[in-house]
Amino acid sequence: MVIAGAGVAALVAGSLTLSTANAAEDSAPTLKTLSTASASKLASKLTSDLKGDAGSYYDAKAKKLVVNVTDQAAKEKVEAAGAEAKVVQHTMAQLESVKDSLTKDDVIGTSRAVDVKSNKVVITADKTVKGAKLAKLKKQAAAQGSKVELKRSAGKFTTKIAGGDAINGDGGRCSLGFNVTLDGKPAFLTAGHCTTAIASWSEEEGGPEIAKSGDGKFPGNDFGIASYTAEVDHPSEVDLYNGSTQKITAAAEAEVGQKVTRSGSTTQVHDGTVKAVDASVTYPEGTVDGLIQTDVCAEPGDSGGSLFAEDKAIGLTSGGSGDCSAGGETFFQPVPAALEALGAQLP
Length: 347
Description:
Layout: H1 2-13, H2 15-27, H3 36-49, E1 56-59, E2 64-69, H4 72-80, E3 84-87, H5 92-103, E4 110-115, E5 120-125, H6 131-143, E6 148-152, E7 158-159, E8 166-169, E9 172-175, E10 178-182, E11 185-190, H7 192-195, E12 200-202, E13 209-217, E14 223-228, E15 237-239, E16 245-247, E17 250-251, E18 259-264, E19 268-283, E20 286-294, E21 306-309, E22 312-323, E23 327-334, H8 335-342, E24 344-345
Parallel strand pairs: 2-3, 5-6, 17-22
Antiparallel strand pairs: 1-2, 4-5, 4-19, 7-22, 8-9, 10-11, 10-24, 11-14, 12-13, 13-14, 15-16, 18-19, 18-21, 19-20, 20-23, 21-22, 22-23
């Protein structure tokens, strides 16, 4: 509409309108074209400096950083740094406080996450949440006004026991996340709900043992580690199920809007986008906090599998709803937090 209006004015006012338009262009903020990594660095710098941090996200299509702000001074600072400023109502501190209060109820079949793009806390209730529990959620959401939105999921939130390559044990199959070292010895990361339920792992069902489960945590978090007991190759790579692999060189935090890829032994490789970070989801076994929420699909057996962005290890498949036919949403345990808690390192 603005471009069309300027064009009509130019027909009438000639060079006067043209010079005015040029002046406006010269004063307009210049957006930087950014990679995910450079956007993440700029976001960290800006949000730490801004009073009343309201969050940020990466627009992968436009390759730009969008930073939420709550006042004019912050808007000007963000634009001067080459990012897009979006004026919103609520700070991250306000939204995270609301999310934490909602998480205390731990209704099975629900998740809570701050949606930076909408500047709201989104409560998602799966198909099992009905009657009095659903009515309570609706009342809680209404009480928070514009800070909260309630959504429904057509599926059921479950962990995905059934990453990369398959690992089998008594009672289930999971997926290997990432090969690591623990005290200088080879090991691998997978989901905590896998290692807390299964003690010994093999490459094939009923095959010889290749690893034993070590430390793990679930619920609360969802990470675990298993140490290799057999002489097997353990490269720092993810299986792409097309005869090739993706080399992994480091771990990284997820960014909202980031394009990511998941590899798992049931559904193999699927892509998607990070929708939220620091999400909480309540499975039948309990609540897990600090998760990455995505629109990547997963199915039973994909648990523990790799979430990555190019050569960076991002997450371990935890659970979610839906499947890879109808679609769904999947939550991931962040890899950096798992490595730190377990004292492990990528090779």
